[in-house]
Write a structure and sequence with these properties.
15% helix, three-stranded antiparallel β-sheet, Metal Binding Protein, Guanine Nucleotide Exchange Factor, Chain A, alpha+beta, 130 residues, globular
Length: 130
């Protein structure tokens, strides 16, 4: 997990919007993210620590307004925890390395997993790979 000293460093390195999403569990407005329509091949990593999270070959257009994936690239890269901050019950996605908020996972995705990992663009960085 990111300690207080590293959190101060993150505050300096990230934009205020990124910090709000990653460290304060914010959400970017729907359809505003720079990675929503990204079609390049590569991997999506945690915007705070670089932990590999998702692969472009598991990305799909869910119509939700946020980048969506039907599976993770690294099974140990993401932790989940209950999120009861709204009326509806959700499952929060957090980076297993630094504890940063990524988004939520829902059970309305495509086969074969039936999962929709709905992730804020601001919580991700993209590394293009050929």
């Amino acid at each position: 997990m990111v300690d207080a000293m590293n959190d101060d460093e993150l505050r300096k390195r990230l934009t205020p919007e990124q910090y709000h999403v990653l460290r304060e569990k914010g959400t970017e407005p729907a359809f505003s993210g720079k990675l929503l329509h990204n079609k390049k091949k590569g991997v999506y990593v945690c915007g705070a620590c670089g932990n590999e999270l998702f692969s472009s070959d598991k990305k799909f257009d869910s119509g939700s307004g946020w980048p969506s994936f039907w599976d993770v690239a690294n099974p140990t890269g993401i932790n989940t925890k209950p999120d009861r901050s709204l009326v509806l019950k959700r499952t929060e996605l957090v980076c297993s390395r630094c504890g940063s908020h990524l988004g939520h996972v829902f059970d309305d995705g495509p086969k074969p997993t039936g999962k929709r990992y709905c992730v804020n663009s601001l919580s991700l960085a993209f590394e293009e790979r050929k």
